Fold this protein.
Amino acid sequence: MKVLMINGSRREKGCTYTALSVVAKALNEENIDTEIIYIGKDAVNGKIDEAVKNAAQKMKESDALIVGSPVYYAGPTGEVIAFLDRLFSVAESDLRLKPAACITSARRAGTTATLDDLGKYFAFAEMPVVSSRYWNMVHGSSPADVELDEEGKQIMTVLGKNMAWILRCIEAGKKAGIEKPGAVKKTYTNFIR
Ligand SMILES: Cc1cc2nc3c(=O)[nH]c(=O)nc-3n(C[C@H](O)[C@H](O)[C@H](O)COP(=O)(O)O)c2cc1C
């Protein structure tokens, strides 16, 4: 089993990466593989199609998704929003019904607003949302700060363990003959007709 993680920060090995690494460690301890992909500036420098195609391919082979973003101006980064807008448009069938979670990192504020934005994507692909013992956030301006955030690190560890448990439950259910519900033909209406 594998969990794909998206680091939506412009910094490849910053605070978001550090937090995602704590989640990854907890998952690896449960014998679940992880991969952290760094989208960097690809979502806004003309390489979004290539970056999304790459992630969509990886998502096909993954059992769950975790999205991480630092707080930029009290919300997720523009890069991660551009990336998710496209990913959820083109890869819905590979995302559908796979457990998901989002995490964030901030120096001080804007964390819950960021989680609100990120968490909404999952509903479009029927993804069960996995939670932890508090909102999924760490605080700091540098990876060293995050290392000192004992509560934040515990939240990330519990998230990893909870994700592993849900994945095992789904696997056990499958073995017991519990299949995923089939996708419906979507009905779309607007407010005009
Ligand atoms: C453009 C920009 C905007 C930011 N806005 C906020 C903010 O609104 N609130 C906050 O607490 N931190 C803000 N920060 C700080 C980052 O969220 C914080 O340092 C985060 O942990 C960085 O994660 P990273 O190393 O993964 O990029 C901002 C940083 C940048 C570069």
Summary: The beta strands are 2-7, 33-38, 64-70, 100-106, 137-139. The radius of gyration is 16 Å. Helices lie at 15-29, 48-60, 78-90, 92-95, 111-124, 143-148, 150-175. The first strand starts at residue 2 and ends at 7.
